[in-house]
Amino acid sequence: MYKLGSVIIGFLITIMVTINGVLAKGVGDYKSVLIIHVVGLIAISLLLLLRKEKINLKKEIPKYLFSGGAIGIFVVLFNNISFNKLGAALTLSLGLFGQLIMSGIIDHFGLFNMDISKFNVKKIFGFLLIFAGLVVMIIY
After folding, report:
1. Cα 1 versus chain centre, distance
2. What tens digit of pLDDT does each residue of 89-110 get?
3. Which ranges does the record mark as transmembrane (predicted)?
4. How many CA atoms lie within 13 Å of 107's alpha carbon, on the beta-carbon side?
5. How far, rounded to the nearest angstrom, does the alpha carbon of residue 40 sit from its chain's CA centroid?
6. Residue 51: predicted pLDDT
7. What DSSP character marks residue 140?
């Protein structure tokens, strides 16, 4: 079920990056980021209201965990800039490769209080295969 959900997330991210990139082409990179996040704030606010959920922040949550929103702004901005220069496939492929590398580092060292999952040397083949695919996409 989680694997299917992850595939669906992949579809949604591709649609989102495409829509965001086209919006950025129309209104500009920085204004599009503002519009995207205001619309997102309105959407999640309505969802919370419909579900009658209250925002209850626990004091023991480390402050750095709230930085995801700021990081999200840069993710959307860089996606918009890259999308309009590289297209959807290359933007998302390079981004996915970056995610693969960073997630391997996070797992290996247990960053952000994650469980440690040591890097297995057998994974290098997968990394190299994906990298080779990126090189082909960039060249052609």
Report:
1. 20
2. 999 999 999 999 999 999 999 9
3. 34-52, 64-83, 89-112, 124-139
4. 11
5. 15
6. 96
7. -
